[in-house]
């Protein structure tokens, strides 16, 4: 997905005959250097920034990412966020690119890397649990 979004941002910007400086200004960046890094695939964009790019480029986040709502619902990240909601946690992605974790009325500013680490640890833990279930179960195929 990341390579797609970076290519799509650049393609859409050029389609609109917009310079990197024009786009940087629309998004509140100091100069075009961040846009160049994003288009080169050197910077990961949080969800909130993807939405800001889509608005600045007059398109949708789905068009930039290539993700449909159904594909997003089937992603591991979406599943993690839904499971967090079940136990009372919520994530908010601000337009400034911050990630806010909320629980029992308190908010905590966390990073995208915190979320990626959580997803990674949850995947390992899920794999471990499922492996244990399969070992104690009767195999019926394959």
Task: Compile the SSE list and pairings.
Elements: H1 2-15, H2 20-27, H3 33-39, H4 47-56, H5 61-65, H6 69-73, H7 76-86, E1 89-93, E2 99-103, E3 106-110, H8 112-135
Antiparallel strand pairs: 1-2, 2-3
Uncertain runs are none
Tally of helical runs: 8
Give the overall form: elongated
CATH fold field value of the largest domain: 434 Repressor (Amino-terminal Domain)
Kindly report the name of the CATH homologous superfamily of the largest domain. Answer: lambda repressor-like DNA-binding domains
SS-derived structural category: mainly alpha
Binned, the helix content reads 55-70%
Tally of discrete structural domains = 2
Strand order of the largest sheet: 1-2-3
What does it look like?
It is a single chain. The chain is mainly alpha-helical. The protein has 2 domains: 2-69, Orthogonal Bundle (434 Repressor (Amino-terminal Domain)); 75-135, Nuclear Transport Factor 2, Chain: A (Roll), CATH 3.10.450. Helix content is 59%, strand content 11%. The chain has 8 helices and 3 strands, in the order αααααααβββα. It has helices at 2-15, 20-27, 33-39, 47-56, 61-65, 69-73, 76-86, 112-135, and strands at residues 89-93, 99-103, 106-110. It has a 3-stranded antiparallel beta sheet. A hairpin with a 2-residue loop joins strand 2 (99-103) and strand 3 (106-110). Helix 2 packs across helix 3 (33-39). It is elongated and about 60 Å long. The two termini are 32 Å apart. The mean pLDDT is 85.
């Amino acid at each position: 997905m990341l390579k797609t979004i970076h290519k799509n941002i650049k393609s859409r910007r050029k389609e609109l005959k917009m310079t990197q400086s024009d786009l940087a200004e629309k998004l509140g960046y100091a100069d075009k250097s961040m846009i160049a890094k994003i288009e080169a695939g050197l910077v990961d964009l949080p969800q909130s920034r993807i939405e800001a790019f889509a608005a600045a480029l007059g398109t949708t986040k789905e068009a930039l990412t290539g993700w449909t709502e159904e594909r997003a619902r089937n992603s591991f990240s979406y599943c993690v966020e839904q499971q967090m909601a079940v136990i009372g946690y919520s994530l908010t992605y601000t337009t400034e690119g911050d990630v806010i974790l909320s629980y029992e009325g308190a908010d905590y500013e966390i990073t995208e890397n915190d979320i990626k680490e959580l997803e990674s640890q949850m995947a390992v833990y899920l794999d471990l649990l499922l492996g244990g279930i399969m070992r104690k179960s009767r195999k019926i195929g394959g």
